[in-house]
Amino acid sequence: MSALPAERLQPRFWWSRDDLDYVDGRLHFAGGDVAALADAVEGPLFLYGQARVAANLARLQGALAGVGRPTRVYYAMKSNRHVPLLEAMARWGRSGIDACSPDEVDRALAAGFAAANISFTGTAVSNRDLSRLLAHPELTINCDSVGQIRRIGERAPGRAIGIRVNPERGTGYGGSERLTYAGSAATKFGIYRAQWGEALATARAYGLKVTSLHFHVGCGYLTTELDAWDAAVGAARGFLDDAPDVTAVNVGGGLGLPHREGDRPLDLARWAAILARHFRGRDVTVAVEPGDYLVKDAGVLVLGVVDVETKRDTTFVSVDGGFNLAPEPVYYDLPCEPAACTPRSFDAASWRPVTIAGNINEALDTWAQDKPMPPLAEGDRIAFLNAGGYGAAMSSNHCMRGAFTEMLLSG
Ligand SMILES: Cc1ncc(COP(=O)(O)O)c(C=O)c1O
Prior knowledge:
eight-stranded mixed sheet; alpha/beta; single chain; 2 domains; 411 residues; binds pyridoxal-5'-phosphate; 24% strand; disordered N terminus; TIM Barrel; eight-stranded parallel β-barrel; Lyase, Ornithine Decarboxylase, Chain A, domain 1; 27% helix
């Protein structure tokens, strides 16, 4: 085996990878020169790397082989619903879709996914929503409340349904409470153990067959959170004993990825071993519906530097896009690491701590604080990493600064 070049053995940055690194001093992502691609469009640019999504999916499916049960992946399109990406995933035919609104279902169908490969799990699902969903008999619908079960029963007696349960255990990135969907505090998600009997009785009353059990207990969990996740899976498994018709258990999404230097990637083998232990001997398919794990590190948001100015003791680097384009750093403290696209220097001694601020009139609109960056000037570009999930999809038009371009790269 030939030796790797020295710079490959010692990547310059914690986030460097084969498809995301500097080439001749310029940041390249998914085979494209990031600054050059941004120069070709007006304003903020989201770049997505198709090959990275495929690699993330392949890695996850490789790990699922260790579960020892039949498995399925439903991509949570709420994380990124860019049509060319959905079409590519439909063509690959290796995953289904997790949808959470009738419009998402329609977009998935239009992109080429069959209704039988779409799993719907929504919250506050209205009767108007239900009439659109029930038009697709093969769609899996995971009910989030007893009322939703009753209203499906009234409209489609005898149908197969799923039920989302709340195991009262959960976890999220760094144990974050805001990213935990099931725990000691009551959340709006799923049916609690206390209502489980009523939920099953309601289903029975309308001849509904409960074929799927669903839970999703938090977002962004990494290896350090796996013990808590293990406990959540164990608590959710308890619901199975009363539901003999269940043929599929959907363990939700929430698989995390590194956001900060020092974060270790999720230990997928250990994650799969937890599932293997809990579902050994159970005649069920194990489904998983990740969003972030597949797309988040497969996207960057490229913004242009508008001003560099020191105010009191802080150097502000102002960019032409704000937190409204990728709200997770501000909402959930899940940072998008900034990387200068064409650094003037890689010599750490020349880097200075700066605050990178967006163009929204809100005090919280900063991308990074005290972040060592190379010397930057008006017209430079910064790529914000991990912007492939819940960026464009969660963006708003706050201050009427919501415009952006999206581009899917094949590399
Ligand atoms: C029910 C459900 N499934 C899947 C997901 C996807 O989560 P993630 O992108 O963290 O994998 C979410 C996200 O909120 C969710 O609510």
